[in-house]
Structures are given as C-alpha cells and as structure tokens.
Amino acid sequence: MNHAKRATEFNKDEAKVNWHDKALWYVREKRDKSAHNVHGWEYLRELGSALKANVLSNLDTYLVQFEENAKKNGVHVHWAADAKEHNEIVLSIMNKHKAKKVVKSKSMLTEECHLNPHLEKHGIEVIDTDLGERIVQLAEEPPSHIVLPAIHKTKEDVDVLFQEHLGTIPSQGNPEYLVGEARKHLRNKFLNADVAITGVNFAVANTGGFVVCTNEGNADMGVHLAKVHIACMGIEKIIPREEHLGVFLRLLARSATGQPITTYSSHFNKPEEDKEMHIVIVDNGRTEQLSREDFRASLHCIRCGACMNTCPIYRRSGGHSYDYTIPGPIGSILSPGKDLKKHSSLPFASTLCGSCSNVCPVKINIHEQLYKWRQVIVKEEPQPVIKKTIMKTAGKVLANPKLFEVAGKSARFALKHAPRFMVYNKLNAWGNARDLPEVKGDSFEEWYKKRNKNNE
Amino acid sequence: MKKKNLKVGLFIPCYVNQLYPQVGIATLELLEKLGVDVHYPQGQTCCGQPLGNSGYEEDSKGICQLFVENFKAYDYIVGPSGSCIYHVKHHFDILEQTEDVKRVRDNAYELCEFIVKVLGKKDLGASFPHKVGLHKSCHGLRGLKLGSCSEVKGEHYSTEEDLLNNVKGLQLMSLNRQDECCGFGGTFSVFEETISVKMGKDRVNDHIASDVEVLTGADHSCLMHMEGLINRNKQPLRVMHIAEILNSTL
C-alpha cells in the first residue's frame, strides 16, 4: 500500500481528520507565537543550521572526542553499525545485570531499531514511560508523531484502552482521571525497573555529557531509580560544545510545542555511585545518507516535529499513512535513503508548498529534497505505465509548439463536446470530486493571432 | 530607468493558454494599459514544471530549452503564474547555464511582482466593489517570496495585497489561515486525490466562512482546483485571477 491509499483510509472518518488537523494546527500556531517572540529567531535558526553542518563535516573528530570524554567520566561507550548490533548491545548489558524489567523514556532511535520486540522476545518487560508512548504501546501501534506519539487517538479512545489494560472505570474520556491512573500504573513500573533506557537529544563532544529533554520528567524518574542507565543515540546527535545547547534548547521546545523550553532538560554527565551508565552510538544508515550530497542536510534534524505540525498533508493523512518510524515531511526525505522501494511514494506525498522548510529550526531544505528524491525515484524505481507514458509524451508534445497546438485543440474539443460519462469516470481522478474547467472557444494564442490580424 | 524602451515577453502558461484565455487577455491588457512594450512570442508551450514536479525533470529539458529560445530576446519575461516563474528561476538549473539561460532565469517575473517591483506601481486605477479573499499560492509566496510567510518572523508584506488594497471598492477579507496550501500540487491533485480534495475543501470553506464573494490569487492552477470543487459543490463563491480584478474598471 502506498501513502495515498493509507491516507484515503484515514479520511474515511472526516470528523476525525478535522479534529486531527485542528489539534496539530493549534500546536503550529503556538509555535509561531512562541518563536516569533524571540528576538533574532531567524538568526538562531541560521546558527542551528550552521552548527549542524559543522557537526556533519567533522563527525569523526567530535564522536571520538565525545567517547574519550565520556569514558573519562566513567561512562561505558558502545558503537553499533546498525539496528541489529544496537539491539544486541542493549540486550547484552541487560543480560550482564540479569535484568528483566526496563523502563524507557522516549527515543525515536529505539523505535527505528525495533528494540522493544527484540527485548520482549528475550523475556524482558519493556515499558514506555512517556504517556503518549505508553498509550500507543498498549494499543500495539507505532507512534504516529515523534513528539505527540498518540495524537491520532482521542481521549475517548484512551479511556477505552485504559479500561482494557489498566482496569480503569469508564470516565467519558476525563483527562485528569486518566492521567492520574496512568501515573499510578507507571509509578509501579519505575519503582521495580532494573534498567532505564533513554534517548539522547544532544551529546556534547567537549564534555562527554548528554541532554535528554522531556515534559513529563520520566527520563529522570527512570534513570534515578534504576541501577543501570542505557542511553541510545544516532551519530548525528553530537554537538561540539556545551554552550551550543543555548542555541538548540531554545530552538527545540519552541519548534516542537511552542514552549520556551521543555519542562525537563536533564543533563547526564556521569553515573551515580554504584550505578552504571552506558551510551550506544548508532549509525544504522546515517553515514550512507551523509554520503548523498543532495540529502545530507536531512541529518541536521533535531526531531522537533514542527514539519509534521505545519504539513497540510500530514495533518490530514495522519502519521501512520507514512508507514515509517519518522513520519511527515522529514520522514519523507529520510526514509527513501533506508529503503527506496518501500518508501517511494513518500516524496510524492507533498504539494511542495515549502511550509516545512520555513518552520524547520535547523533550516533543512525539506521541500527541495522532496523534489530531488522524486527525480531519483523515477530513475531507479519502476513507475506506473500510465504515469510514465503521460510524462514521456508530455515531454515531447510540450517541446514542440505544433504538437502542443494540436493536442490543446483536441483536448479542448473533447472537454467541450464529449458526453459527461466519458469525462467523469474512474480513470479521471480529477473529476471524482471536482468539475473540470469550462472550455471557452479559442485558446489565448488563437485569440492573440486574430487580434493582431484585426489590428493590421 | 526608461521602462518604455524595455521589451517584455509575455509568458502565458500552457493550461492558461488552453483553458483560461481570459486570464491571458487580462494580463496582456493590463500590461499594455501600464504602458509596457509587451510581446507574446508565439509557439510557446510550457515551463516544464508538470514533469519536474513528477520526477521527470530529465524529460523536460526540451521544454525548458524551447522556453529559453522563445524568451531570450526580451528584457523581462512576465507571466501570470507564480509557480511557473518559480520553476523557471529555480529548476532551469538542469540546462547548461549559457548566457541566454541565465538571463531568462534572472529576468523572469510573476505579474504582480513585476508591476510592484519593476514598474514601481501599486495603484492601477482599477475598481472592483466586492469582498475578495486572496489565496496566497505557495510557490509565489514561499518560493518567490511575494509576501511574508506566517511561519517566518519578520515584517508583514504582500505584493498582491499592495495591489488589491489600491483597487477602488475592493474589500480584502481576512482568513482564518492566511497562507495554507490549497492542495493542488500538480499531479499530486490526481495521485493523492483524497488529500488534495480535502485540502481544497478546507481552503474554500475558510473563504466562505470569512464572508468572501470572490476568491482570487496569482496562480490559476490553485484557482482551477478550488473552482472545480466550488462548481461541483455549488458553493456561492466566484473565482477570478488577480489580473482580471486589476484589469477591472467597472
């Protein structure tokens, strides 16, 4: 199934689409207000972008520097070439400690690597502790948004889900009640966890420390209670110096939710006494993307989700329509690099309106990369015969004024005189919900020629 | 600068030429009224955008080359469509960058931009006593920067608003979402039909909810998409290209 088909599924419930669109538009507007209150916001984006470009050009230096400093702080550093290695490393740490229970705060990387099913297969209980993540985990669904993982669910949906899994009483979707119950449920899990897994928002090369941003404090809660902390990060999460956090922390929360800063920006530098801290640094296709000049800047991404909130397609097609860990515009430029065939419809799931590039805090030229992926996909993936024929023919007709004149005339003739069933049918997706233009007599060129003749 | 001596090549996009001749006529008449030495090079076809946006940029080189041939002799190239002009300026990088190609790319202007920035005029003496809603098409807005974008911090400006605000009797209505995409997107409108239609519907309803009588814009492809929905759903909204309004003297 391609994006268009999954989007059509999502659109069977128009009221829900409207609700989804409005909920995310609200976040987008909150972002505008909060970002535009910052004097020099556009300059801050420039800085963020330039810093990330510097990082990507010097990854080798910064990563090694980070490893060195982290080791000095008593942190264990591991390197994983791909998802498989990442999962094995995490499991081996678990096994070493005979750990059976894990609490996890939000990490898109572990989603990308499908860590949960791997650990569960080995008899380990994994609990996602971010409320939205816990909701989709209970529903056995992937997150539909990277910051708001359960945005596709209404509070009534959550009510039903909690009744089934947490034994709550029906509350007609009362948020206070449901959050209270989730808190009780999670508190228990926190208290009994052997290991806490977190993601990493920013890893600081010159200190060997890293920062995890959450709104619920669940990363701190997990890490402070468990004996072992495993932090998983993609290689692009590195920033050169601690003071650069002043750029990125300001950009991140405002872009993500319109908050001036996330409720918790937790700095982890070294393990507490008698505890262990591990960092797993993961490539999983990132160096390959780095080698693609046109698409390199996609690795600037700091996972704020602003491009999803602003995308008029995402808001109306839902995150699951992308069928990729990272949905929306940024996912549509990252995913083809992972599996061109599987994700070949995603770069076309856009009108190239450019709003994504405008909100991106690190100035990724998302819509331009979408355009470029389209060119790559047409060259490398087999295309539907009809589309290919139309495009190749159009290329010839439009390069030839005589052919264009004939084609234009016959098209106008057909539109004007053909019976309605020939124009409006299943082959014409334009005409399902839209009327075709009413055809006037002459084309502009014909009119122009006549006018010039009359003036002679 | 003596504008009178400058020769302007009128670019009429392929679908406007075939389906909306009145938009081409309004553009030509408007430029003539403004004293511009405007010519329509015959035998022009298209800018190649439909192919480029569909991933068939390679197959559009002949079209782009023909465009350059048709317009290389003019000081300015002016067309009533932001997205086509954007394509010429940004995507003709697939051609060998000869002097002709560079000149055509540098001197291509969307109609409103040409009037305001090159001719330096905002009041064109038009009158149009109606409540008008302006659809700011994405390629003109975010691509050519014809106006400030809601996402970007900065002073508010809009080339189209500059012109419409000077039309006698015209009341420019404010919308709930000032610059959201209408969902046309070229072949997107067909291959992602569901979302395209939903986006168009939402945009049209915003205009209706904002008490708009006439929906206008500087890109007729977006207008064609929304007009198709309006006509099918028999909604009380007229659609006109901005050139038609600016050329009105009623």
Helix share of residues of chain A? Answer: 40-55%
The geometry of chain A reads as globular
Q: What is the number of helical segments of chain A per DSSP (H or I, 4+ residues)?
A: 22
Class inferred from helices and paired strands of chain B: alpha/beta
Structural overview:
The complex is a heterodimer of chains A (456) and B (250). Chain A contains 22 helices and 10 strands. With 456 residues, chain A is α/β, with parallel strands linked by helices. A 6-stranded parallel β-sheet of chain A has the order 1-10-7-4-2-3, sandwiched between helices. Chain A is globular, with a radius of gyration of 26 Å. The mean pLDDT of chain A is 95. Chain B has helices spanning 14-19, 21-33, 49-53, 61-71, 82-91, 99-106, 111-118, 138-143, 159-164, 188-191, 193-209, 220-232, 242-246; strands at residues 7-10, 37-39, 76-79, 108-110, 131-135, 171-172, 214-217, 238-241. At the A-B interface, helix 1, helix 2, helix 17, helix 18 and helix 19 of A face helix 1, helix 2, helix 3, helix 4 and helix 8 of B.
Please write out the topology.
The complex is a heterodimer of chains A (456) and B (250).
Chain A: H1 3-10, H2 14-36, H3 41-57, H4 59-72, E1 76-80, H5 83-96, E2 101-104, H6 108-112, H7 115-121, E3 125-128, H8 131-138, H9 155-166, H10 175-192, E4 195-198, E5 202-204, E6 210-214, H11 218-225, E7 228-234, E8 238-239, H12 245-257, E9 264-268, E10 276-282, H13 286-290, H14 306-310, H15 314-317, H16 328-338, H17 355-359, H18 366-380, H19 385-397, H20 401-417, H21 420-423, H22 444-455
Parallel strand pairs in A: 1-10, 2-3, 2-4, 4-7, 5-8, 7-10
Antiparallel strand pairs in A: 5-6, 6-9
Helix pairs in contact in A: 2-12, 9-10, 16-18
Chain B: E1 7-10, H1 14-19, H2 21-33, E2 37-39, H3 49-53, H4 61-71, E3 76-79, H5 82-91, H6 99-106, E4 108-110, H7 111-118, E5 131-135, H8 138-143, H9 159-164, E6 171-172, H10 188-191, H11 193-209, E7 214-217, H12 220-232, E8 238-241, H13 242-246
Parallel strand pairs in B: 1-2, 1-3, 3-4, 5-6, 5-7, 7-8
Helix pairs in contact in B: 11-12
